[in-house]
Design goal:
Layout lengths: L1 H17 L22 E3 L5 E3 L7 E7 L4 H16 L4 E7 L3 H11 L4 E4 L4 H5 L7 E5 L5 E6 L4 H12 L1
Parallel strand pairs: 3-4, 4-5
Antiparallel strand pairs: 1-2, 3-6, 6-7
């Protein structure tokens, strides 16, 4: 009986650990350090085109996520609170890699205020080498990638990343 419990626990841990694995075939490494972040232009939920280059001069958190990813969903309230607190100094671009209608319903239900961009073809995710979700890329005010986080962030980790991006 004890061995069955251990087996069940191991299976649950394995399922949780792989639940947000990205559905991308990209092998492209993420640019980092002194490299400029690849520019992109994507539509938001209303169809308005948004480009990364519009936000030069501000720190940008690019968050790649999907509605089917539990960790992505769990970090959204912290991401929203972070955006509200640092609005004007930080821009959050939440790039959804799944069906636009599902994304719109999720965002409306959550009442999130950060900018949600749609990338259902995953082209931007591939350009950034995203393989797992959530993945967040921090771009400094000069347009350089200064940090990448694979996995769920907390409010505290977001604040620490912002501090490093401002150094």
């Amino acid at each position: 009986m004890k061995s069955i419990r251990i087996l069940v626990v191991l299976v649950v841990v394995l399922l949780v650990a792989t639940s947000c694995r990205g559905r991308q075939d990209s092998e492209a490494p993420l640019p980092s350090g002194d490299e400029s972040a690849p520019d992109f232009t994507l539509p938001d939920l209303k169809g308005t085109e948004t480009s990364l280059s519009q936000f030069r001069g501000k720190v940008v958190f690019i968050n790649f996520w999907a509605t089917w990813c539990g960790y992505c969903r769990d970090e959204m309230p912290d991401l929203d609170a972070f955006q509200k607190e640092y609005d004007g100094d930080v821009v959050v671009l939440a790039i959804a890699l799944d069906d636009p209608s599902t994304v719109e319903a999720f965002v409306q239900e959550g009442g999130f205020s950060f900018r949600v961009l749609l990338d259902p073809q995953k082209a931007t995710g591939k350009a950034y080498g995203v393989r797992y979700l959530p993945t967040t890329v921090v771009v400094d005010a000069s347009g350089r990638i200064v940090e990448e986080v694979v996995g769920m962030m907390t409010r505290e980790s977001m604040e620490a990343m912002l501090e490093r991006a401002l150094d």
